[in-house]
Amino acid sequence: MSGNSTGHLFRVTTWGESHGPALGAVIDGCPPGLMLDTAAIQADLDRRRPGQSRLTTQRKEADAVEVLSGVFEGRTTGTALSLLIRNADQRSRDYSGVRDLYRPGHADYPYDARFGHRDYRGGGRSSARETAARVAAAAVARQWLAARFGVEVVAWVDRVADVSATGVDEATVDRAAVDAYPVRCPDPAGAAAMTARIDAARKAGDTVGGTIRCVARGVPAGWGAPVFDRLEADLGKACLSLPACKGVEFGSGFEGTRMMGSAHNDAFGVGPDGAPLPLTNRAGGTLGGISTGAPITLRCAFKPVSTHFQPQQTVTREGEAVTFRNQGRHDPCVLPRAVPLVEAAALLTLMDHALRTLALGRG
Amino acid sequence: MSGNSTGHLFRVTTWGESHGPALGAVIDGCPPGLMLDTAAIQADLDRRRPGQSRLTTQRKEADAVEVLSGVFEGRTTGTALSLLIRNADQRSRDYSGVRDLYRPGHADYPYDARFGHRDYRGGGRSSARETAARVAAAAVARQWLAARFGVEVVAWVDRVADVSATGVDEATVDRAAVDAYPVRCPDPAGAAAMTARIDAARKAGDTVGGTIRCVARGVPAGWGAPVFDRLEADLGKACLSLPACKGVEFGSGFEGTRMMGSAHNDAFGVGPDGAPLPLTNRAGGTLGGISTGAPITLRCAFKPVSTHFQPQQTVTREGEAVTFRNQGRHDPCVLPRAVPLVEAAALLTLMDHALRTLALGRG
Amino acid sequence: MSGNSTGHLFRVTTWGESHGPALGAVIDGCPPGLMLDTAAIQADLDRRRPGQSRLTTQRKEADAVEVLSGVFEGRTTGTALSLLIRNADQRSRDYSGVRDLYRPGHADYPYDARFGHRDYRGGGRSSARETAARVAAAAVARQWLAARFGVEVVAWVDRVADVSATGVDEATVDRAAVDAYPVRCPDPAGAAAMTARIDAARKAGDTVGGTIRCVARGVPAGWGAPVFDRLEADLGKACLSLPACKGVEFGSGFEGTRMMGSAHNDAFGVGPDGAPLPLTNRAGGTLGGISTGAPITLRCAFKPVSTHFQPQQTVTREGEAVTFRNQGRHDPCVLPRAVPLVEAAALLTLMDHALRTLALGRG
Amino acid sequence: MSGNSTGHLFRVTTWGESHGPALGAVIDGCPPGLMLDTAAIQADLDRRRPGQSRLTTQRKEADAVEVLSGVFEGRTTGTALSLLIRNADQRSRDYSGVRDLYRPGHADYPYDARFGHRDYRGGGRSSARETAARVAAAAVARQWLAARFGVEVVAWVDRVADVSATGVDEATVDRAAVDAYPVRCPDPAGAAAMTARIDAARKAGDTVGGTIRCVARGVPAGWGAPVFDRLEADLGKACLSLPACKGVEFGSGFEGTRMMGSAHNDAFGVGPDGAPLPLTNRAGGTLGGISTGAPITLRCAFKPVSTHFQPQQTVTREGEAVTFRNQGRHDPCVLPRAVPLVEAAALLTLMDHALRTLALGRG
């Protein structure tokens, strides 16, 4: 296998290059009997689509999803779902500028090192365009998780460069609030400042990074696994597999490591349903790798976009030193469009663990 | 599967409870022909062993490893290796204090929620004692990676609570320097301050957390995979599967998200072997999820130890609110003993990706 | 996972229903650098296509394959290949006759039992039409195995009902000889008799089964694995996953169990390359689950086609006893078209084991 | 992975060599809450043990199983079970006769070809002794399948060389009847004739093979999967992974391919619970790869034992032609001891598919 698949029971394989004819995902393991809302899949895809605002790239893509298999009379059949997205914007470009050199911050060199050659058109398989397929697959997971368990996953932009959101309540924030601003920060003041920060970077021909937070509410106690497949481990892997993601933390995360143990532990009380429930949530919803019933909370770090417009030093395939400068239009900040990606990472992971929990054969 | 296995080609399954008769690991996929140094496996285990200094728990365990299969005339045969470690210190204890309640910060409640009951003796399967098996398996990987590729993995304590190491050089730090101080920080001043910090916590009946850094040197360009199995994703999963680990970051990590793209990208130059090599290493040794030949660098966050000696509020299995207080002797800080665990996480991941790269069938 | 994937390293997932818009396969793990001959993929598909002769079903399908990803400038990139085949012949039919009852010999009832509902149009996912996707994926494996190792896989019809082929030489038979007769038996007399046997069945409104033999030449010694993934085990699984296949045997197979051990063992001599080579081949090319360098030989049993035109007793979804009779035109004998399926089963298995052998890291 | 593992959800890994200190199995994925009867595991192992009668090898092994993990207070915990069996009979032998040559019919040569060297003591990993670990793991599956679904798996010797059992009723035959004769054939006349046949082979310094039949009763409709993981495919793989097994067939098998379709299809009637049930069982309990509720029936072919006492022609590791003759005492017929192996193959497969069915999330 070459890394294009994820999940044990809700197994998703994505395929497709940035400038190929299409991209897509196959889901092997979707439970049967789900009334599949294809409009909702499309709505999730639309949140990731390029060209939504001046904050993002101007590539024109409808990103219209077709469901080619696995659904009959509106319901999933339990066999493989094939989701297809045609690439519309494949206009002929001149790639001579990037074909023979290694762009700093991009996968050009390691792909050549690994595979011996690479599809250099728009990044080929390493393009973030691939994530459309993940979002489509995760949209199926979102529907099943909501219908079966009432799980709700919401992500938002937490910080752009040094501009942070404040006052966002993990217990109540929803996707409508997040989408109220193109920058996808549900704090109005933060959203305004972030937008200004991104505009400034764009005008400077530069780019910025930041962090995204995500909460999963409604996950019952008992999802996850001991040892290698702890829920944080699988969630973290999913997040770190997103383009440009260089870090992930759960609950109190890195800051929490400065606390004393007596201050950090979450005391248990009794939840509304009579089950134990942590009274605080520094643990971020898990203990020993298994969910406690508290909201699962995480934060991801996204490095500043590698495609800026300053001159850069690099080498060619023949090992010659050259100075390189990007052309065209690109996202100065990936974070607004990364919000649905982080949700997708969480949804695919939770879906897989939900099915793994059913497979325990309890109850 | 219940989460006790990791890896696709170098597949490790661990088993065993804290107070069962033994624990161990089975490795399915160790390449044949490796001259296995069992003393070196034992040496790696000894670094994780309890009771090494006053900084760590006083449980007495020899942690003597037996290799029960997969080796003939000193060389691995290519069939499954079984590694066994007997539990020596299983003296009878009174568990009535923990059997019926849910310790804050521990896996007691989610294990009950997931499995319907749990082995409450010393944490059972959720005990960090399980990690001995990972360290043993990773010691095999260390030997093969060194012999075949010259890969070297070194981790050290980077910060305890708010006391940070300074001046550690990722390019040269080695395990001897790390082990020169019981706290496993290769910065003498930092080590002294960290030791004092841990002692203070112990005296206060409290615990501390912190961060560990790790570097993998000698990884050739081209290890990793596109999309879901990016090298950071798999390394991050391995780290986040360690007990108490709540965050991981690569290269510039969370701090790097505050930089501009033009400042963050690593320019390419030409390495000593004529291949491209990043001139700086903010990326942490990967691009697009695949190694570049630069050192792979990461940092892990470990929460403060959950077993402190202050009174804590919790509930019983029957849902009654109670006040709970730990007894006995426990590590006030897990970090010195977590150093070999982080190395193990990196080694197991790199080993698997090394074999996956061979399976590409190039060359 | 719901059973739509096969292979560890050359991992193939197929999708699609008989009367959906399309079907296809995704290959995760195709080695990079293969010059892919898409015309050869199409040629393999054409051997499986319906409507090739009066012996087979008259459904009209071009079965034109599109390669949507994973190839750049003619060579595989090492990322996922997506192969798409449109369903052309989806004309509207009246399924009221089969929607509400369970056809004997078909998957209707167990699909309902497993999934709660089913796509009843033409068998949905249980249709043999799915095998087009396997054949397409296997055509990629065929090219790599030939280019890298000189492996050659040839299958042919060995017996139809009680009419057997004679005189076929496993050492030399090739696909051209097999395809010389529509019935795909390279023995002229046998082919004529089989054709007559199939015609007689068709005229009687009935169907026949039989056996297919397959040989893989050029497989080096050392492919396979001990214990669970023996080469016969994986080959056998692949064959038994073909529609209507109810048995498989290797080398001397069931008949060989009547021999004495002293007569059955294959003595070793020295092969043309100086390596040991069995002088006879009752073992069918493997010992202990691993190839010996001798040709791998197997035989598959295909039950008579379930869709005949005699009245049959069955029950409806509501449990009512009814008499049912098939309509339309169907293959009276699946064997000629199953020849490429058996080859595909062998090719996919050998490809996976080739890569697994490379992953051992020897040499 | 090197082939030592099987199953997706009930994942079993075995390890150990014939003349190493021990062998064992780790089960990752055993459902929690099973009251584990270790005496019943031992009883299953005792059926496979050498030295049970004059029909089998005289190696002395107690095959006492230890459960080292995964059970607490008598119940499985849902974490990994480790099963250990010490090798008692490791007395020093002289292997110079087999160390440097390749025994016909044995795995010596392909192991060397694959791994570069081999443990030549008693066959090492290729020894049938490995199957003790499978039987132990399958004994756990047997208990869960019986407790949860009432599944019952029974195998028996069907034919030895040309001596067949007659009159065995698949609907009622049980293990007590099978074990009534050392040859494990529940037909008294057949048992007597088979015993004579084996004795004759032994006296002639030769060996015999034969077939084993197996039935699984109580499997509900709906287990299995479409396409690659059909229930026959997985059952067949498990059987073909047994040492000396060279063929497998389901239901009417190879003989059924001589029938007309109109005679072969099983008509549906209504079962005792009101669900559809095939009125005959030529299909062997599955349709489209999924169980129908009818008994699952299969037959396995076991080649004659490779270790006979006639002179054999072979080559040394250096390629020199030599004549070889086995020494010592060995089973003249593997079939009586293979009965529990075939049951184990079926049990492990059914257990995995049971959990996979639960993971569908229906009901």
Structure notes:
4 copies of one chain form a homotetramer. The first copy, chain A, is of the alpha+beta class and 363 residues long. Chain A has one domain: Chorismate synthase AroC (Chorismate synthase, AroC fold), CATH 3.60.150.10. Helices cover 29% and strands 22% of the residues of chain A. Chain A has 10 helices and 18 strands. In chain A, the strands form 6 sheets. A 5-stranded antiparallel sheet of chain A has the order 1-2-3-7-4, covered by helices on one side. In chain A, strands 9-8-10-16-11 form a 5-stranded antiparallel sheet. A two-stranded antiparallel sheet of chain A has the order 5-6. In chain A, a hairpin with a 5-residue loop joins strand 12 and strand 13. In chain A, helix 1 packs across helix 4 and helix 1 packs across helix 10. The longest helix of chain A is centred in the last third of the chain and has 24 residues. The first copy, chain A, is globular, with a radius of gyration of 21 Å. Chains in contact: A-B, A-C, A-D, B-C, B-D, C-D. At the A-D interface, helix 10 of A face helix 10 of D.
